[in-house]
């Protein structure tokens, strides 16, 4: 990961001062770096040597960072990674445009790898991520969203980049198709678990620990699984309160809604769904030879679900 950091620093550079300022601001805030870790761990588990894996890991982190910059504009978020968001500090236009810079820099770097398959995987993944965001936009303020439609959004907007990161480790290793699919399955399931937990932490977490504001999802009228489950388990007045809050994007009654979500066991049920996904991810690793990297991937299954930030 130190080598990935070095690639990130080197490749962030631009002749344009504001590009450097904003990209260093968001990248400098850190982040968990899970997606690049997946590239390195799968590549390492399958015996890949050399610098290409560090370049590829930096590429997925750039794409991830571009999506965060765009997402915070779309969601009008003010806190990310424990700091003011780039849009809050530099404005929406600068944030979107520096997101574009990072996104296109990632594609420049992909071309440098000279592997059409890498371009293929990431062109598809980024297209699906964008579709996921549009689907989510269409679902806003809809308290009647089905659980299946909710799951589709999180598979597109979050799990797809996890899947691509894991798959690319196998692509670099020229792995057999069955092994590549097992890696992709791991990434998809882990990414789904990760987003389920992300959604529950919006009601369970503490702003300070999370580094972002709790209740943001409700403020935007996002019908996430904790709310969908609380509506199906709550009393009629509780259901009506949540319906109204989703429709209006209203956080005035957030404390009451948090109480309902907790009392109905919706958070525990969401974590349970995340554990089931993590179990699928774990099972996909059976096809990989034993190695320290495989052990780390097993550990990630637990950590992604039991995390509190
Ligand atoms: C630029 C390809 C492209 C698309 C733009 C706005 C948008 C379309 C996509 C947003 C997708 C998105 C932000 C999904 C949420 C994924 C998610 C869980 C982000 C948080 O990931 P962490 O917790 O973040 O890994 P850190 O800060 O740790 O890096």
Distance between the termini: 20 Å
What would you say the CATH architecture is? Orthogonal Bundle
Number of discrete domains? 1
Into which percentage range does the β-strand content fall?
under 5%
| Radius of gyration using CA atoms only | 19 Å
Overall average residue pLDDT = 95
CATH class: Mainly Alpha
The bound ligands are:
geranylgeranyl diphosphate
Write out the CATH superfamily name: Farnesyl Diphosphate Synthase
Count of DSSP helices? Answer: 16
What's the assembly state of these chains? single chain
Question: What is the CATH T-level topology?
Answer: Farnesyl Diphosphate Synthase
- The succession of helices and strands, N to C, reads HHHHEEHHHHHHHHHHHH
Per DSSP E runs of 2 or more residues, the count of β-strands stands at 2
Shape: globular
Are there runs of 5+ residues with pLDDT below 50, and where? none
Class computed from helices, strands and strand pairing: mainly alpha
Percentage of helical residues? over 70%
Strand line-up in the sheet with most strands: 1-2
